[in-house]
Amino acid sequence: MQELMQEFWLPLALAATFGAFTGSLFRLTRRPGFERPLLFPVLGLLAGIVAYFIHQLLVAGLDAPAWLLPILVVLQVWLWLGPLGPKFKPRKPS
What we know:
Layout: H1 2-29, H2 39-62, H3 68-81
Protein backbone atom coordinates (compact mmCIF):
# COMPACT_ATOMS: atom_id res chain seq x y z
CA MET A 1 0.00 0.00 0.00
CA GLN A 2 2.87 2.36 0.80
CA GLU A 3 4.40 1.77 -2.62
CA LEU A 4 1.11 2.61 -4.35
CA MET A 5 1.03 5.88 -2.44
CA GLN A 6 4.57 6.79 -3.47
CA GLU A 7 4.32 5.64 -7.08
CA PHE A 8 0.82 6.77 -8.05
CA TRP A 9 -1.09 9.05 -5.68
CA LEU A 10 1.72 11.34 -4.55
CA PRO A 11 2.95 12.24 -8.07
CA LEU A 12 -0.66 12.63 -9.21
CA ALA A 13 -1.40 15.01 -6.33
CA LEU A 14 1.79 16.96 -6.99
CA ALA A 15 1.02 17.27 -10.71
CA ALA A 16 -2.53 18.42 -9.96
CA THR A 17 -1.30 20.96 -7.40
CA PHE A 18 1.36 22.26 -9.76
CA GLY A 19 -1.28 22.55 -12.48
CA ALA A 20 -3.58 24.55 -10.20
CA PHE A 21 -0.67 26.80 -9.21
CA THR A 22 0.31 27.32 -12.84
CA GLY A 23 -3.32 28.08 -13.71
CA SER A 24 -3.41 30.67 -10.94
CA LEU A 25 -0.22 32.25 -12.26
CA PHE A 26 -1.76 32.28 -15.72
CA ARG A 27 -4.73 34.14 -14.23
CA LEU A 28 -2.38 36.81 -12.87
CA THR A 29 -0.94 37.43 -16.33
CA ARG A 30 -4.37 38.12 -17.83
CA ARG A 31 -5.94 41.55 -18.00
CA PRO A 32 -8.20 42.30 -15.05
CA GLY A 33 -11.94 42.26 -15.51
CA PHE A 34 -12.46 38.73 -16.78
CA GLU A 35 -15.34 36.79 -15.33
CA ARG A 36 -14.99 33.46 -13.53
CA PRO A 37 -11.49 33.76 -12.04
CA LEU A 38 -11.86 30.35 -10.34
CA LEU A 39 -11.90 28.78 -13.80
CA PHE A 40 -8.13 29.25 -14.16
CA PRO A 41 -6.98 27.13 -11.18
CA VAL A 42 -9.68 24.52 -11.83
CA LEU A 43 -8.64 24.09 -15.45
CA GLY A 44 -5.02 24.04 -14.27
CA LEU A 45 -5.87 21.27 -11.82
CA LEU A 46 -7.53 19.20 -14.53
CA ALA A 47 -4.66 19.89 -16.94
CA GLY A 48 -2.20 18.66 -14.30
CA ILE A 49 -4.13 15.42 -13.89
CA VAL A 50 -4.32 14.85 -17.65
CA ALA A 51 -0.61 15.66 -18.02
CA TYR A 52 0.18 13.09 -15.32
CA PHE A 53 -1.65 10.36 -17.21
CA ILE A 54 0.01 11.38 -20.48
CA HIS A 55 3.35 11.13 -18.66
CA GLN A 56 2.45 7.68 -17.36
CA LEU A 57 1.68 6.54 -20.91
CA LEU A 58 5.00 7.95 -22.11
CA VAL A 59 6.85 6.21 -19.27
CA ALA A 60 5.22 2.88 -20.08
CA GLY A 61 5.73 3.17 -23.82
CA LEU A 62 8.94 5.13 -24.27
CA ASP A 63 10.57 5.13 -20.81
CA ALA A 64 10.23 8.93 -20.55
CA PRO A 65 12.31 10.73 -17.88
CA ALA A 66 10.76 12.16 -14.70
CA TRP A 67 11.71 15.75 -15.56
CA LEU A 68 9.24 15.65 -18.44
CA LEU A 69 6.21 15.75 -16.11
CA PRO A 70 6.48 19.43 -15.03
CA ILE A 71 7.03 20.46 -18.64
CA LEU A 72 3.94 18.51 -19.69
CA VAL A 73 1.91 20.16 -16.92
CA VAL A 74 2.97 23.67 -17.96
CA LEU A 75 2.33 22.92 -21.64
CA GLN A 76 -1.07 21.43 -20.89
CA VAL A 77 -2.10 24.42 -18.76
CA TRP A 78 -0.86 26.84 -21.42
CA LEU A 79 -2.77 24.93 -24.10
CA TRP A 80 -6.02 24.76 -22.14
CA LEU A 81 -5.91 28.35 -20.91
CA GLY A 82 -4.25 29.87 -23.97
CA PRO A 83 -5.09 28.99 -27.56
CA LEU A 84 -7.67 26.32 -26.77
CA GLY A 85 -8.91 27.98 -23.61
CA PRO A 86 -12.12 29.75 -22.75
CA LYS A 87 -12.91 32.90 -24.66
CA PHE A 88 -14.03 35.79 -22.50
CA LYS A 89 -16.08 38.60 -23.89
CA PRO A 90 -15.50 42.01 -22.34
CA ARG A 91 -18.35 43.31 -20.25
CA LYS A 92 -20.22 46.27 -21.56
CA PRO A 93 -20.28 49.12 -19.04
CA SER A 94 -23.79 49.75 -17.80
